[in-house]
């Protein structure tokens, strides 16, 4: 039998008030991205803005806890439990070689075009032919073999 949810939830731990405004701003951006029109877009393009906002919010919470050490463990666990950050993505960021990972789907081999491979944005730029521009189907980030500044992601391979 499924667990019945009640309206009684624990209040947020101490320190939540300090980051609440920023998290509400991310929530507002997320609502705007969800209600945005999807006409004229490919099926995968409709979720790209949502993926980017989710990534930014998860990175913000990750940086607060692991890099800057500004929030407590209780607050960090509460934020993950409430769904403010993607726990699976943060778990990957803690592993060597995945520090710049853009989304969890980019490392899942079953979601790639070639069986047993990873996403194109995980391939180091040095391995790509010069001038080739490849768009990640999972998150919409753009990987180029040029070493100059380009709009979008330059890939999430840790060796770049």
From TrEMBL:
Keywords associated with the record: Coiled coil, Nucleus
Keyword Nucleus: yes
Signal peptide: none
Domain of life from the UniProt record: Eukaryota
GO BP terms in the entry: mRNA splicing, via spliceosome
One matching Pfam family: BUD31
One term under GO cellular component: spliceosomal complex
The name this protein goes by in its record: G10 protein
Primary location class: nucleus
Gene: BUD31
Family: Belongs to the BUD31 (G10) family.
Protein location: Nucleus
Coiled coil: 16-43
């Amino acid at each position: 039998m499924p667990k019945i949810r009640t309206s009684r939830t624990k209040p947020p731990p101490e320190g939540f008030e300090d980051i609440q405004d920023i998290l509400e701003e991310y929530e507002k951006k997320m609502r705007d991205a969800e209600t945005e029109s999807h006409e004229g877009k490919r099926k995968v393009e409709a979720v790209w803005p949502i993926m980017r906002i989710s990534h930014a919010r998860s990175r913000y919470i990750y940086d607060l806890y692991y890099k800057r050490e500004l929030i407590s463990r209780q607050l960090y666990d509460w934020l993950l439990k409430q769904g403010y950050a993607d726990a699976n993505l943060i778990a990957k960021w803690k592993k060597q070689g995945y520090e710049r990972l853009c989304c969890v789907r980019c490392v899942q081999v079953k979601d790639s075009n070639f069986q047993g491979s990873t996403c194109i944005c995980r391939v180091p730029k040095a391995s790509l032919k010069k001038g080739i521009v490849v768009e990640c189907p999972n998150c919409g980030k753009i990987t180029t073999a040029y070493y100059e500044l380009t709009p979008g992601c330059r890939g999430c391979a840790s060796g770049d």
